[in-house]
Design a protein that fits this description.
Number of helices: 3
Number of strands: 2
Strand content: 5-15%
Distance between the termini: 18 Å
Radius of gyration: 17 Å
Oligomer: single chain
Largest sheet: 2 strands, antiparallel
Number of domains: 1
Strand order of the largest sheet: 1-2
Length: about 80
């Protein structure tokens, strides 16, 4: 999962700059963040799902390459996930 985390991190920054997300949607209690209203979670799910869906082929290729590497590291190179 960590190689693809950068997709979500990038989308958070992009969405924040576009004012699609708002700090006021969240609360903080006992060291944890939470949605102030349940309805907000749908907005964020859609934002993140789109970011992942736009790169689904790249994610598949990475996971497939990782699987091949794990099955035979002598024959296959460790895959790289590229943001471009």
């Amino acid at each position: 999962m960590e190689p693809m985390r950068v997709l979500i991190d990038r989308q958070i920054i992009k969405s924040y700059n576009l004012k699609q997300i708002n700090e006021k949607d969240f609360g903080f209690k006992n060291g944890s963040f939470f949605f102030k209203k349940y309805e907000y979670s749908k907005k964020y799910r859609n934002i993140f799902l789109k970011a992942i869906s736009d790169r689904k082929d790249d994610i598949y290729q990475y996971v497939y390459g990782f699987y091949r590497y794990m099955m035979n590291s002598q024959k296959y190179n460790f895959p790289n996930f590229k943001l471009c």
